[in-house]
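ok here's the first one, seq then struct tokens
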Amino acid sequence: MTITGFLILLVIAAIAGSLGQALAGYSVGGCLVSIVVGFIGAYIGMWLAGQFGLPEPFPVTIQGETFPVLWSIIGSAVLSLILGLLTRRRGVL
């Protein structure tokens, strides 16, 4: 994989992570965190899809690497929701 292909995958992961965070209503951090959330969300989403026997409806293939966009967005939303529930702010007096 070339640097260009890797950068394109990072941009797709950032967009998927941002969309997942927006759906969950909880933003973990900035752009770099969105990239990480997008990649972790792809693993979570693919695991969930495998558990329920669901196919990959919208994969993106860049230089031989396949990135599951829809499952990444869903997995990112699940991850952001869990992080939001675990780290929610306590009421201020």
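and now the second one, same deal
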Amino acid sequence: MSELDQLSLALAARFIELFNIVLRDPLQAGKTAPDKVPFQAPLYFARIPLQGPGVDGWLLMNTDQRFLNETHPEKKYGTRLDSADYLDWAAEILNRTLAGSKTELKKQGWQINLGLPTATEATAAPLEPAKFEQSLVLESGPFFVSFTFHMKELARPALQAG
């Protein structure tokens, strides 16, 4: 299993854990290809930089309003949500996923610092060239989330004898 596989599985496990209670059907690895996910406009893209020894890149989450609406914490109070609420929630999802994964990632030998998450509403994902790239689709009933890892560099630091 590659380092990118190990990193993405650790983050996916935390993401799934975050939404186990909220969604009727648990999220699971999707059978849908990343370029075939039936997202409905408007689309939301959240991005968080990942930096550290041997790590230089970011994690991008793509989803649509249906998923964000279903999982938004204010939904249970009947609050009407707008585009700004969805943008904030998309960025917060990545923040919670990565912050909640730091202990597991450290056990695996990763030393990752998180940047500030940002989110945008668009019709297509903003992509930049990357040396290492992997996409993972998670789905639950009609809800889909796509994670794409874009890494310019990815290698765990060598253990120092000491």
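notes on #2: The CA atoms of residues 109 and 160 lie 12 Å apart. The helical segments are 3-19, 65-71, 83-107.
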